[in-house]
Amino acid sequence: MALAKNRRRDRSVDFWPGFVDALSTLLLAIMFLLTVFVLAQFLLSREITGRDEVLNRLNSQIAELTELLALEKGNSQDFEDQLASLQSSLSASESERSRLQQLLSQGAGSSAAANARVGELTSQLNQEQQLSARAASQVELLNQQIAALRAQIAAIEQALQASEAKDSSSQAQIADLGRRLNVALAQRVQELNRYRSDFFGRLREILSDRENIRIVGDRFVFQSEVLFPVGGSDLDDAGRAEMDKLATALLDLAKEIPAEINWVLRVDGHTDNSPLSGIGRYRDNWELSSARATSVVKYLISKGVPSNRLVAAGFGEFQPIAQGDTPDVKSQNRRIELKLTER
Q1: Domain 207-342 class?
Q2: Where are the CATH 3.30.1330.60 domain residues in the chain?
Q3: CATH code for 44-188?
Q4: What does the alpha-carbon distance between residue 215 and residue 337 come to, in Å, rounded to a whole number?
Q5: Taking the CA of residue 343 as centre, how many other CA atoms within 13 Å lie in the half-sphere pointing to its CB?
Q6: Percentage of the chain with pLDDT > 70?
Q7: Looking at the predicted structure, is the pLDDT value of residue 315 above 90?
Q8: pLDDT-derived band of residue 95, with 50, 70 and 90 as boundaries?
Q9: CA–CA separation, 290 vs 270, rounded Å?
Q10: What is the C-alpha separation between 156 and 185, in angstroms, rounded?
């Protein structure tokens, strides 16, 4: 009869942890996929925002250059009109000069007046010729400026097209990177989950079969009474014996986990909601829970577990696993939790 009872107890213990491991693995995978999706969306939105700013700046420069080109064209037209007027005036002056020279040759009596008029027209003609030369020079300069502006606009349009092409390429690279990141992280999560299951399986085999040592979700839970005296944070003899078994399992597992998996064993200290007096060694439950977690970590280090693979955290009474003020509930909430996770 005792053998049958032990077999029934073994079957119940083996069924429930497997169900919890499967459920926790599913939740971790969902959380991981959501995290990767949010990260990819953030990177993509930041890249697109930068490209939009560049495109807006280039479009603004094109608009400014277009306005400047239109202004320069207007100035060029004005100078061309002025040049045409000067050339027309020059032609009229030439005609008048020819007429006066003819009059000069016809009559000697009007020679003085004609010579004066010829000199005046000659001076005016020289001035108009100088103005015409300056106007032609300005028109040539404006034509050169217009050609330079057109070349600059063409270069900006090429840069804009190149930027758009690069933006499309960057978006494709981001999408491909996101897919590869999803695959890599999914593989890492699967590997860590496999080693976590192996670790819990070994702990179930080597630790004592006691009601106050159990599995809750993805954590291995020790009741504080198994490890510490009441109100203390120093491991007692029974607690050191249990931690020796834990250190052995952890060292064996560390040899099997690949170096690229950055794993840690998180040791979380929890207390019940009974307040401390404040006059003892610890002022409140924060200090007591932190001291107990640190005590476990230091003992594991003394047994050869690498310190960079251990994390200690104290939660006080603020993360209970049972609600109420009965002695049984308080006993459940006074605990040390072990969780194998990735840094």
Answers
A1: alpha beta
A2: 207-342
A3: 1.10.287
A4: 9
A5: 11
A6: 73
A7: yes
A8: confident
A9: 8
A10: 42
The pair of structure tokens assigned to 146 is 């217009």
CATH 1.10.287 spans which residues of the chain? 44-188
Enter the tokens of residue 198: 């192996």
Tens-place pLDDT, residues 26-72? 778 888 887 877 887 787 777 777 777 777 877 777 777 777 777 76
In angstroms, how far is the first alpha carbon of the chain from the final one?
47
Position 59 scores a pLDDT of 77
CA distance 271 to 326: 14
Q: What is the pLDDT at residue 13? A: 52
Residue 306 has pLDDT above 80, yes or no: yes
Q: How far does CA 250 lie from the centroid of its chain?
A: 35
CA atoms within 13 A on the CB side of 160: 16
**CB neighbours of 131 closer than 8 A, spacing ≥ 6?**
86
Of 55-59, 61-65, 149-153, 339-343, give the range with the top mean pLDDT. Answer: 339-343
Question: Starting from the edge strand earliest in sequence, which strands make up the sheet with 263-270, in order?
Answer: 213-216, 219-223, 335-342, 263-270, 310-314
CA distance 133 to 129: 6
pTM metric for this prediction: 0.46
Write a three-state SS string for the chain: CHHHHHHHHHHHHHHHHHHHHHHHHHHHHHHHHHHHHHHHHHHHHHHHHHHHHHHHHHHHHHHHHHHHHHHHHHHHHHHHHHHHHHHHHHHHHHHHHHHHHHHHHHCCCCHHHHHHHHHHHHHHHHHHHHHHHHHHHHHHHHHHHHHHHHHHHHHHHHHHHHHHHHHHHHHHHHHHHHHHHHHHHHHHHHHHHHHHHHHHHHHHHHCCCCCCEEEECCEEEEEHHHHCCCCCCCCCHHHHHHHHHHHHHHHHHHHHCCCCCCEEEEEEEECCCCCCCCCCCCCCHHHHHHHHHHHHHHHHHHCCCCHHHEEEEECCCCCCCCCCCCHHHHHHHCEEEEEEEEC
Q: Which residue type occupies 179?
A: R
Q: Average of pLDDT values for 177-182? A: 65
